[in-house]
Amino acid sequence: MSAKLAYKNPASTASMIVEKDNQVYLVKRKHPPYVGMWALPGGFLDCDKESLEQTAVRELKEETHIIARVEDLELLCVNSSPTRDPRGHVIDHVYIVKKYLGTPGAGDDAAKLELFPLDNLPQIAFDHGEVLEKYNAWRLKNA
Predict the structure, then answer these.
(1) What global pTM score does this model have?
(2) pLDDT band at 2 (very low <50, low <70, confident <90, very high)
């Protein structure tokens, strides 16, 4: 008789960086965790139904009304610390949105959507402050 192994798997999310005039769009969170704090737009992968890139496109539209295509995304980093999200082990895939359309506005899980200068950011939820530091390094490298 063989023993059946059980695995506990982490959840996957996509977060997006959308820049305009040296500022980035942040959403004010409407739901726990970190209610009322600013964060990058993003959300959970709809397992068995979409890729992470499709998650990024869907969540961006739902939370900000910004429309992007999969081919307009560039993966910046993957953050997998088991303590980065108080809900449990969540692996975040962060995409730079290089081209987009639409009229930005808060939607879905976002109480507000605002642009913030990269050199004057508010306190940010999760590890998104560290993510934006990585993004600044990426910008300097790719200028």
Answers:
(1) 0.94
(2) low
